[in-house]
Amino acid sequence: MNWFSAIVVFVIAWWLVFLATLPIGVNSQLEDGERNLGTDPGAPVHHMLPKKALWATIGATVITLIAFLIGVSGIIQPPEAPWG
């Protein structure tokens, strides 16, 4: 895996992990009972975005490392296809 492929894998993995962690631990204003005027009742009270971005970075690093190790070890080989 070259550096460009590693960056692409990392970015895609980061967004997947980040979007998967967004709903974890979020309470809406309606559930929590503290409603701010002019906001939607489903708006989160505490979004915890920095914490979720950190978890997404850790998860994406692990996923990229696993993809790198699979690529280096040769467990999965790309098919032999004529290019032209």
What does the model show?
The protein is mostly helical and 84 residues long. It has one domain. Helix content is 57%, strand content 0%. It has three helices and no strands. The longest helix is centred in the C-terminal third of the chain and has 25 residues. Keywords: Membrane, Transmembrane, Transmembrane helix. InterPro entries: DUF1467 (IPR009935).
Gist of the model:
The chain has 84 residues and is an all-alpha fold. Helix content is 57%, strand content 0%.
Keywords, separated by commas or semicolons:
84 residues, mainly alpha, 57% helix
SSE order and pairing:
Layout (H helix, E strand, L loop, with lengths): L2 H19 L7 H4 L16 H25 L11
Helix pairs in contact: 1-3
Oligomer: single chain
Order of helices and strands: HHH
Report the major sheet.
none
Residue share in helix: 55-70%
